[in-house]
Amino acid sequence: MRATFKVQYELGATPIEKIAIPLDSRDELPPVLRGLQYIYHTPELQKQVFDLLATKILAGVNSTGRTGMSLWEILVFSSVRLALNNDYDRLHHIANYDSLVRSFVGISNFGANLKKYSLQTLKDNIRLLDDETVNSINKLINKAMHRQRETKKLNVKIDTYVFETNVHFPTDFNLLRDACRKSLDLVQQIYSAVEIPGWRKYKQWRQRIKNAYHRAAKRCRGAGKTTEQGLTATLEYLTLAESLSQKLTESIQLLQILLSENHFQFNKFRSLLYFKGHLDKHIDLVRRRIIYREQIPHEEKVFSLFEPHTEWITKGKIRNEVELGCMIAIATDQHDQIIGYRILKNEHDVDIAVPFANELLSDYNIESLSFDKGFWNPENYNELKGLVNKLILPKKGKLSKAETERESNPTFKELRRKHAAVESAINCLEHHGLNRCPDKGDDGYRRYTALGVLAYNLHKLGNMLIKKDNKLPSSKNVIKISI
Fold it and tell me: How many beta carbons lie within 10 A of that of residue 406, not counting itself?
């Protein structure tokens, strides 16, 4: 059984709308909590947010059973995690010992039987959210902020940056070792439940693979891969990996029969098939690249076995020549709110300019759109100029007389100069956790991105409200609610 939010407070608990938040703190947490407080205390916005959460989390949930975390608790803890760029261990400490955050979920410091959250409970409940639900909440918050600011038309700036995945630097050698290592780990886990013939010495296999990998990696460093020692070490590594692949092939048919009725172990068997496929793929890639001296096409390469959505991105930066992750396009308005974002999958800036602009125009009244030169091509310009009144899309290369006149227009120059403000939003997003994603899988990556944008917008909303509260005559150190 799961409630939308807690109505009956514990003895000694303060109603959320009356919680005192420090106005003079420079920490990231008070503005985010102030934004959450505004959501809770605004009836229409609260209903819309909880309806979205209920549609996602409460759908198909039995009304009986143990009480789970409320929707409000899930929203608060997921926002706090990204606002402070915390991992789950730090969030676990905050949820159990930070009195200000605990007061926001209706827990008082009164009495001896204080509620505690387990680490796994926090993980499992936050993972119930998905990016679509969080994006819908973001749109509601943006519209609430625009009403507060009385904003009618938006001047939107769009730019991209790389949001990295949590992966090591990929080489054919270490990716082949990852495939061998994970295959053996899964064999060990399955062997503990079902004794598989021929796998009693799986620990020795792991050590032999490790030793062969280090010999090959050491001797093939730099120009070493063309020497006799490098080729010999590579062939030994490949021979051992091929032996492991053959041994796995012999066991797969038997495992499929033994584990067909054990769903938990059968899921491990499916994972084993996944890593076995990568084992064979990287045996082939290493042989072609080192032995046959082929240049592997980019589309055949894999950059992570654990985060397969990872892309190899080069943006021409001095410090980061190569970044591993996905490109994210963000759109900010004149108040530096993030009104939308888009994850690019095997796409470039020029590919998403028009579809992303159409998404934004379907939700907001936009007066101007500004891009940098990376989004330019003639087709994009011709389509976009009919969508908005003011289009700032600088052309690559040499300008014609008409284009020089267009880009010399005072309005164009002013909005192009203001476009640089989007870099500040990108830096703030990275500060709110969207620098390197610790969550696993494509779903985790998308959810983490959406929650990072939510934390950013809550921070902006809270700062705006705190600024208003500071102007009230009676407010010195705490907030006086004025919605």
Answer: 17
- Cα distance between residue 159 and residue 334, in whole Å: 14
User: Position 91: which residue type?
Assistant: L
At a CB cut-off of 8 Å and minimum separation 6, what does 34 contact?
Answer: 21, 461, 462, 465, 466, 479
Where residue 257 falls among pLDDT bands split at 50, 70, 90? confident
Confidence category of residue 480, pLDDT binned at 50, 70, 90: very low
d(C-alpha 423, C-alpha 449), whole Å:
17
CATH topology of domain 151-166+309-442: Nucleotidyltransferase; domain 5 (3.30.420)
Q: What are phi and psi of 259, to 5 degrees?
A: -105, 5
Scored b (16 or more CB within 10 A) or e, 44-80 reads ebbebbbebbeeebbeeeeeeeeebbbbbbbbbbbbb
Q: What whole-number distance in Å separates Cα of residue 64 and Cα of residue 203? A: 47
Task: Give the residue extent of every domain in the chain.
Answer: 16-140+443-470, 151-166+309-442, 172-300
Q: Are 2 and 68 in contact (CB under 8 A)?
A: yes
Q: Give the bridge partners for 342, in sequence order.
A: 329
Q: How confident is the model at residue 397 (pLDDT cuts 50, 70, 90)?
A: confident
Of 81-85, 110-114, 176-180, the range with the lowest mean pLDDT is 110-114
